[in-house]
Amino acid sequence: MSSVSDNPLIVQSDHTILAEVDSPRYAQARDALLGFAELVKSPEHVHTYRITPLSIWNACAAGHAADAIVAALEEYSRYPPPANVLREVRDYASRYGRLRLVRDGDEALRLECDDAALAELIAGHRETAPLLSDCDDGKRFRIPAADRGRLKQALVKAGFPAEDLAGYTPGEPLAVRLREQSVQGEAFALRAYQHEAAEAFHAAGGEHGGSGVVVLPCGAGKTIVGMACMERVAASTLILTTSTTAVRQWMGELLDKTHLEPEHIGEYTGSAKDIRPVTVATYQVLTHRASTQGDFTHLALFDRRDWGLIIYDEVHLLPAPVFQVTATLQARRRLGLTATLVREDGREDDVFALIGPKKADVPWKALERQGWIAKARCTEVRLPLPEAKRTEYALAEARQQFRIASENPAKAALVRRILALHDGEPALVIGMYVEQLKKLATALDAPLLTGSTGQRKRDKLFEAFRHGELPVLVVSKVANFAVDLPDASLAIQVSGTFGSRQEEAQRLGRLLRPKRNGNQAHFYSLVTRETREQEFALNRQLFLCEQGYQYRIVDAEQGDAALIAEDEQTLFTSESQV
Amino acid sequence: MKHLNVDWYGLIGWLSVWETLSEQSKLAYLRVKPSESLARDIFDEPDCQRLIDMRLLAASADGMKVRMPAEAREFSSAIRAMARHRLDDVGTERALVAYTRDHLTGAEHEALLDETNPRSRYYGSDNLLLLTRKDWLEQFLALGSAKAARRWESQRLPDRRDRSRGTRFEDGAPYFQDEALFEATKTLIEAAMTWPQPVPLTELADHVTNVDPHLLGRAIMPAVRYLLLFPRLAGEDMTPVIGIWPQIAYLLHRPAARAPKPVKPAETFHAPVLIEDMTTVLVAAAADPLRVLASGQGLYAKDLQRLVESAFALPSWLIRQAGDDDFDPREDAEASSDEARMLDAVHNCLRLKLLRSHKGQSGRNQLQITAVGRDWLGKDMRERLRLMLEPWREASGPEDPDKARRHTTHHAAMAGLEAPWLDDDEDDDDGQWLDDGPWSNGAYSPWTPSRLRWGGGSALKQVDWRAAFVDLLRDADGAFVPAEDLLAYHSRVNNPLLGRRVRGSYGPKPRVHMYGLGVGEPNETQLEKLWDALADDMIARHLVPLGALELGWLNGQLAIRLHDIGRYILGLADDFGYRAHPEGAVIIQPNFEVTLLGPAPRAEAIIGRLAQRTGSRTGTMFRITRASVLAAAGAGITADDALHDLSEVSSKPVPANVAREVRGWFDTTRHVRMRQAWLIDAGDEATATRILAAAGKQARQVTPTLVEITAAKKDHAALVRKLKAAGVFVR
Fold it and tell me: For residue A12, which residues of chain B lie inside 8 Å, CB to CB?
């Protein structure tokens, strides 16, 4: 086995690729990898990517050829890539583009096949056969336009994705123009990567563009990319996002950074059902139904206007009913925005089939280096359980033990210490138990935001926080999603189990906006030592490390200097330093 | 002689009639038995009539049937005997056995072979193969006088007493009292040895023109009687022919051996697979001992699978080829699998004491890495390879037990062992793993073909096996040559077995045994096959796994080329060029994963004790978990040791969070002692006090009402009696 030791990649036969970050050729290799492999995890020194059929089809959709992919693997691999991987790359790639979906009159589409054998194969396949009854000449199938999405889904499941060249309905025209200076008076222009992402999506209005997913790290300005796409499509737009707060933020951003007027923008949420040329809705309202067996009455929103573009914010969270509807909306342009293509439910293939292939993916580290997103430092601070609580803890059930440890009263003083160390930095104190948060809010003299806080009050608190009138906000889990607090640079988590990967990413993502004073964000997690809370905290530690964040563990007793110590001082080099 | 005891001159005369018959008529004639009548119409009618006219058949009264007349029985018997043993082109050993059993009586058979095996009259048939050697004919031709011929003949006749009275046997033996007949027989044999194929009996006189035809006819009888010539029917037209044993004719007249031609393989492969496999085994054993089956004949399936999954991958064409019985002479096709490879590696590790067998806590045998094994693993790949090669390089010249013993000592030294590895170790239960191999009889003699059992062995003592392989592999030095062609060529032109006799061993077991071939006295063809298989075995089992040969693949054919490593062990080079990869960098990541950027067996062995394995060879191979750390603590590793080891193998500083957690996990562990105790539950404090008072130093108080008996178990009965005397009754 010969090796090229300078090369950063190790391609493994299970289709994973290890990339050594410290290699001099890492950046080039990473840029090449992004085109055809998915980033699985990115701890400090060695990142893991994975080649999947979807990643190869995404690459093919973006114009990468199998030869180029193989060449890149060979170019940057330390050892000869396993033959099976190269063979399968070629095999996957060979499947893309052999089927094309084109328009055939107004009401029908035609699926064109390269060869009769493939046509026979898909005609007999369990997934696709029910949709392919009408065959012209053994290689061309006529299908109803309404089956466009379902067929694409089925073809992906059958392993032969179709290139959708059937075009789009133009939708109701709407001029959307980005401002050069925001309403708030700040200079505004698309960053290069945002511009490129929008261009890649639009593809000059051609049939190769108009549907797809833009992958950008939290804080990199996905909303801006969405608005840039709206400008290019110039049609009425339905924007779907995860919460009412996020709806308001979208609306605020649209008003702040485009020339759209308030009467152009409607909110479609639990509290308002306003349909305008640009309508922003939540996934929740769309999937609301009166009973578990009832209809999704609000899904009709998709047909209430001749939308020219549908934007799916946080597309990795797209709920199943919306997928179903989206399958019927394939004639409309669709843009997915996300920080990760990985879905907890494994429906990445549906995103590929129904929203579209990946159009842009910008490495997080590249944005961090360019200063577009903040650097985040994660610190786990361990503190002892007070003597008075130990007996209670020892005798409690496991679940109760976790709560006792989480609600460790000594955390309040520690929160104050940390806030004092970061005096002047806008801070979120995040927790799971409302009682604990109430006490903290009282102790810190800070407002508390929970699930029961009304939307009006929330908005007011967020606004005050944005303007620096409130230095500290105590929030419950409600703050996990789509709470865009641009100037928050400090988060202190006082309690909470490790949630899903997205939940943790979102929570930290709240801190990643570029900062006015320096570009450093801090995420503290307070953990009671030698308790079940510490065991749970390990999951978070692993996750954050795998995301590439610096993760330090300090003891509360070590003093203030240790809490804010530089990383170099905490690295282990010999046992005497531990 | 049973069936061929005929007047051959007369028979040849009748054969002119036979040769005119149609094929159908010949087949029909062969069906006619002396006691039966057959329908006439099974013959072609003209042939039938001719046979009747020549009195070789007789017609029934009504003319519808035919039978064998008495005067034709000699002819019929001979022709049917020749038909029964057609013999193929080469003549198999089985055919010879059938032939001799059919034609010779038991006494004749025994006497004929008596000389070949003078000490035994019971197992002489082992030596039947002597008759298929050219020597058999040459020995006869070497008889220089009629006297010598008579002596030779007298030794091959059944009973000396009969012969001493001058009695003749039914077949006319002894023959060579007639000097002219002896000379004619010699002339006939000399001529027959020049024939690539047997000649038709009717043309025999044309091939032996310098002997009177009558005398020539008589000379056939002793030639046939002493199995110098073999008459039979040949071809579809069933022509009666005569010639020497087909195998000898083939050897005398086959085309000259051709040296193999260089080829350019489409794919090539080279790796010292054995060293890689041993490394894999030791790395695995360093993490967890390998569990041995109760039978002692293998590993637990899971453990074996673990090894297989970590095994060095061979190219698919080589795996296919290795599974081909033609290539791998081992009978068990499975032996070529990865599992067999791993078990071979385990054998090697055991032999070198890199592994040792011991009983685990469960009482089952386990294979555990030794200190020597860890040292071996700590060396770089080239050094590990060199240590394995040294015994091969050192073992030159003819092998003998003393020499082999010195190799043993050397081999122990090469493994860095302080103590000789042949020392008995009470703990060891390695005997069940022993099989033949280079360590035959406990002595290390790598070039000796240990799978070959050769009667007496003295004939092979003078063989310089390494020199034989030098001769063999020189033809593969510089260019790839097809392995099959190379072996076929050298089995003829450079075969150290040819010309060596088997001596000194008698009994029911074959005296030459290898790969299912067991014979008493192998002939040239068998010796060629034997050397072919033996060299093939050496290549497949030893030289390729050591990396001495490069392998190539072209059109389904395996080719080999001598590698620098091969030149080194053959003594053709002073050093070998093998660029071993440096140990791959090991990175411990903040997410507790341990990633190996290249093969790093030493690090792998160390980390394997501290972390949970998640992959093999390269990539993310381990994850440090609380459970793995607790297991390490349970094995006696301390936090300081663990962190020291991690920092030593890691090419980057151990992440602080990892170091902290690891130490924290170690700190939570405690070692406690569990022991059996006898307790008396006194029920109340007053009774407990009474018990303590009565028992004195034989008890101690555990709780106010619980008393532990500290007396030895043998004293319990006395203590119970003492308590009883004190009024405390123990139930």
Answer: 615, 618-619
